[in-house]
Amino acid sequence: MVRLKERLGLFFNNRWLVFVAAMWIQSFAGIGYLFGSISPIIKSSLNYNQRQIARLGVAKDLGDSVGFLAGTLSEILPLWAALLVGAIQNFIGYGSVWLIVTGRSPTLPLWVMCILIFIGTNGETYFNTAALVSGVQNFPKSRGPVVGILKGFAGLGGAIMTQIYALIHSPDHASLIFMIAVGPTMVAIALMFIVRPVGGHRQIRPSDGFSFSLIYSICLILASYLMGVMLVQDLIVVSHTITTIFTGILFVLLIIPVVIPISLTFSQETRVPSEEALLSESQKQEPGVSAHDQEIIFSEVEDEKPKEVDLLPALERQKRIAQLQSKLAQAAAEGAVRIKRRRVPHRGEDFTLIQALIKADFWLIFFSLLLGSGSGLTVIDNLGQMSQSLGYDNTHVFVSMISIWNFLGRVGGGYFSEIIVRDYAYPRHAAMAIAQVVMAFGHFFFAMGWPGAMYIGTLLVGLGYGAHWAIVPAAASELFGLKNFGALYNFLTIANPAGSLVFSGVIASTIYDSEAAKQAQERHHPGQWNGASFLSSFLSVDEPLKCEGAICFFWTSLILCGLCIIASSLSMILVYRTKTVYTSLYGKSRT
After folding, report:
1. Distance CA 418, CA 473 (A)
2. What is the C-alpha to C-alpha distance for residues 560 and 372, in angstroms, rounded to an integer?
3. Which of 17, 78, 241, 548 has an alpha carbon within 20 to 30 A of 439's alpha carbon?
4. By the 8 A CB rule, do 421 and 582 touch?
């Protein structure tokens, strides 16, 4: 009995259990990706036009990305308290929207609806912060895979919630809003005491590689399964019994990862974390040199290395840098040199937010993210109207599909960018540049409106958009450190709503309403056109403006295509500027 109690204690303090619980929370945290499904419901119920829906979309994006309060509270309060605050915000915000849409509460002005959407979606920032903070602290040597997987499950949340909604089989479409208000709240409260830092650096073991491979396999199976289910439900009429079976299998796939902490805890080979065989950080240090001094020695290389080192071939450059690091460490241990403590950190060290804001590399990351992810978010927010304009009735399918591709983009972005930095010591943003070119092709397909273009565009934009959120957090932590990761990450996420504010709130909505007003004028006065009647149709809010045909988003998609190409260019500039940094960070492991 005593041994069982010890095992249960180890189980609840196992970092893999925390990781799996964080995955479950993230699976229901991607509520922002369902806006494309609920926006037509809000639009028809409250008689909004596309410009008003775009404003709600911007409020949603702001709520989803402004996480300063979540980052601050996560440093002051325990993570369970941050999760509780997020759950309360989610329930109050979307619960109120549901009451208004269903007529159970009086209709409120648009600005109040924006505030409610902001409050509800802002709860997601608490879920994200708690999951990522616990993840990077418990897996300090696997930041790329951990961030990619956790952000990937957040992107998959839209497809998971849509499948649960299909199980409910409610004729009232507003019930999806109710499910958004209740579902994430219940999951977060149920798991809030599990998601926390548990000294993960002491739990590193040789089986971690196999465990990550298992998680990746489950991710691929889950994405493939959801894609198959969505296609089947779109192409044929499926009975409620079959839908129940589909949803049951989905829950089984989500539960399977818990096998990892169970097997690690109750297997014969389990040992107390402090007795792990792998070398700890203190064992890897040079004798006589503290961990803090080692970090400073690492940065001294930037000052001490000759300029011609940067001109050498990659392999030779890595060897020279490794030799210089070793000499500095030995000299410091013998007292031959005094290590300088600089007030201004170098790239690769811990920056505060203020210090990072004066660095060109930080702003390159920010504006590349603004153009790339902002264009992707514009598609996500307008996916319902885009599919309807091309004649598709079931908009939920495309919302679910882009959620799945978003998930695979995040998981794949973390995996392949990790290969780039670990195996080739090359900047992580090279993967970002590729993702942004892929998105540019996706926007081009949306612009053309060819048969099947919605499916191809959804695939390419979803993959590219998702990759941003696996690559950027990992790259920011590498260039600016982990100490203030929460503040740095939450500032960078502002790029998302900033891009959406311009691209969706101004460009897309204006072009859509303009084309819709032209079509409305043609319907009411065929063969006639005059500026006064066009302006009257454009400004009227008596009935929602509806646009049909590829022309509705043609110019918007072409503009977004060009912005992604610019974003890719910014990413490549960052790659050029940070080559030596990544050689210093990862080159030594390859020699």
Report:
1. 12
2. 9
3. 548
4. yes
